[in-house]
Amino acid sequence: xxxxxxxxxxxxxxxxxxxxxxxxxxxxxxxxxxxxxxxxxxxxxxxxxxxxxxxxxxxxxxxxxxxxxxxxxxxxxxxxxxxxxxxxxxxxxxxxxxxxxxxxxxxxxxxxxxxxxxxxxxxxxxxxxxxxxxxxxxxxxxxxxxxxxxxxxxxxxxxxxxxxxxxxxxxxxxxxxxxxxxxxxxxxxxxxxxxxxxxxxxxxxxxxxxxxxxxxxxxxxxxxxxxxxxxxxxxxxxxxxxxxxxxxxxxxxxxxxxxxxxxxxxxxxxxxxxxxxxxxxxxxxxxxxxxxxxxxxxxxxxxxxxxxxxxxxxxxxxxxxxxxxxxxxxxxxxxxxxxxxxxxxxxxxxxxxxxxxxxxxxxxxxxxxxxxxxxxxxxxxxxxxxxxxxxxxxxxxxxxxxxxxxxxxxxxxxxxxxxxxxxxxxxxxxxxxxxxxxxxxxxxxxxxxxxxxxxxxxxxxxxxxxxxxxxxxxxxxxxxxxxxxxxxxxxxxxxxxxxxxxxxxxxxxxxxxxxxxxxxxxxxxxxxxxxxxxxxxxxxxxxxxxxxxxxxxxxxxxxxxxxxxxxxxxxxx
Length: 573
Prior knowledge:
Elements: H1 3-19, H2 38-45, H3 54-67, H4 80-113, H5 120-147, H6 150-170, H7 174-202, H8 208-212, H9 214-236, H10 240-260, H11 265-270, H12 274-285, H13 290-311, H14 326-329, H15 333-351, H16 354-368, H17 371-377, H18 385-397, H19 400-410, H20 416-439, H21 447-463, H22 469-477, H23 480-511, H24 514-535, H25 544-572
Pfam families: Sugar_tr
Protein name: Major facilitator superfamily (MFS) profile domain-containing protein
Domain Major facilitator superfamily (MFS) profile: 85-540
């Protein structure tokens, strides 16, 4: 076996092992459901009374999942439709992460290929051009997902990824390279929007948190894979074209895996395709069981309520006619409030500095002197400083991968809100520690070790908190007829701030210093903790339809309280 064949087998093995990571996870039951006696579970499944509340439905769901069937009616495991769902959406996230991270290694070679050593501004534009395309992608992805379906939106994203990668590979000028990265960024927008909507609508309530963590698992794995692939290309003596061409090959596998996935039952029902929706639901749940009939009844009744509500609004969306759900976002105060919470979470995610760290970690670690640690261990790396900085980046990134699996385990047991409240303080602390390490004098012997450790700790607590939670909660809080549009608005906020952070990071570092810049991110995270404490509801273990009813009930009580206070003030006056 030649060295090239060995490296190729290693690379493909990582791709398929990462893509298969989540598929072995069993059904997850929230902690508060595990103590429910089996007799209560049987009673909660025995018939559907007219006065059943959201809590009754939650208990019934958990009982069904604990005693339900898996693949084709057998005990344990996922159904075949759920496996296709997991693999398809994981591959989308894997490609998005790979395409995001590969530019960090490619920039090290692009600067010499296009003679941009003295043009850091152009390098910054190349690095952030994909996020600009992602803003454009999210602006249209919600409409495409609502009009054509979640699967077709993802298939279109795979086509755009392949096209963007081919343009970048064939680029002979910086302008052509920018066009290719923008097209790839549009695909990012489709993945960011459609993947989370599709998973939220297809997952069972008790395992929805674990499945909605999949995009973060896949994106983080894809970024780590891109760092490793970049190191292999540099050591092999290849150029940036060999790095950027890999995405076109991966996009073919993404398209095939997406084609196998079932369509969202909620979207099909919203379009008036009841039989197709029921067939897709049975495919996802493993057969027509009592729990599936219960879920189908709830879906149908929720769709009828949405149809009645939309019929009263001239610009609203009606079932079976397709269309754009933007008007539904502002139809009710509860939806507007939920959208504001989702957008704020997306803003907090980006203001933690995550994309600045992804794009500029090699430069930050070079500033901290971390590369000298690796050249001491591997003297041969002194001839490849670019590979050395990427290896240091990979070393700081690898601890994130097991942490994401831990997040999948905890998110349905601990809850979204509690996980954020618990993990955000260490996240802010790690940013503060990184800021302190970069402010130490160059002669300090533990400066590089402290910087590397701080970045690793930051990555761990990020994937346990702000990594998966914003997209997960956005997919859960918004109603079905507004979910595509709401996800576009929410993810649009994410990508706009991502661009601003990526562009402003080198400017801030040159003006106030790298350490103070990370200290600002730490202060923002401390403020964000209070927002989560005061404004974020818990969504764990609750069906999407029950969440909508609970949010409407909260808004009704809030309005009634304000009305009473106004009346008291008028009476006193």
